[in-house]
Amino acid sequence: MSDVYYSQELIDMETKEQILSLLKNKSVLKQDVFHNTIAQFNGLKEVLKSTIQELTDQFGNTDSRVTFEYRDRGAFQCEVRIAGDLLIFQMHTNVFQFEQESSFWQTGYLKEHPENSYVGTINVYNFLSDSFRYDRTADVGYLLARVFINKENHFVVQGKKQLGIMFNDIVASNFDAASQTKFIDQVVLYALNFDLLIPPYENLHQITVEEMQDINHSGSLATGKRMGFQFTSVK
């Protein structure tokens, strides 16, 4: 056996060992994160159902036009309708790692245990209920928050206003039922305070015949809480 062949054989063996090491460590770690995230997402669904039932009971017969509803859309998505708002909770099926520039890497929790930097993600989107009721496919929704959960069930939230302030301690936090309830309450509170704005008149004072026909035929008056509404021509 030549020295060149022997050297190449060693390199191949080392490569195989590296592959196996990554499979045994990183791939197993990602499975741990994924299964913990889906377990917590299932728990979040139960808290959402309880929240909707509680709101329904407490609101009572105040006004029959204001409705509440929970819907399970499968393993990775569910939604709640609260009055004119639709909140969609969606779990991403992949596992991510905090980028090195993230401030979380400044904590000993990640520095000493880099495996804690791998997280699952739950996204929360806010749409208008009417967007789905009337099949207005051009309407706009907004990402209110992203929940990042690691294998130890520690979590942090990236989100709008109080959502990004109240849940920003990944070292001390735990995504248990109490934290989930607090998080959901803040999401609902933010969505209800996030109003639909009237756009400037100057942006809407002209409309083409085609746009008017499209509105009649396909509901293409695109609407979103911050965009208000605008004419959208469908080609």
Task: Compile the SSE list and pairings.
Blueprint: H1 3-59, E1 68-72, E2 77-82, E3 85-91, E4 96-97, H2 108-111, E5 118-128, H3 129-133, E6 142-149, E7 155-159, H4 162-166, H5 177-193, H6 209-218, E8 221-224, E9 228-231
Antiparallel strand pairs: 1-2, 2-3, 3-5, 4-5, 5-6, 6-7, 8-9
Helix pairs in contact: 1-5
The gist of it:
This protein has helices spanning 3-59, 108-111, 129-133, 162-166, 177-193, 209-218; strands at 68-72, 77-82, 85-91, 96-97, 118-128, 142-149, 155-159, 221-224, 228-231.
Care to describe what's here?
This protein is α+β, with helices and mostly antiparallel strands. The chain folds into 2 domains: 35-194, no CATH class; 196-235, no CATH class. The chain contains 6 helices and 9 strands. It has helices spanning 3-59, 108-111, 129-133, 162-166, 177-193, 209-218; strands spanning 68-72, 77-82, 85-91, 96-97, 118-128, 142-149, 155-159, 221-224, 228-231. A hairpin with a 2-residue loop joins β2 (77-82) and β3 (85-91). α1 (3-59) crosses α5.
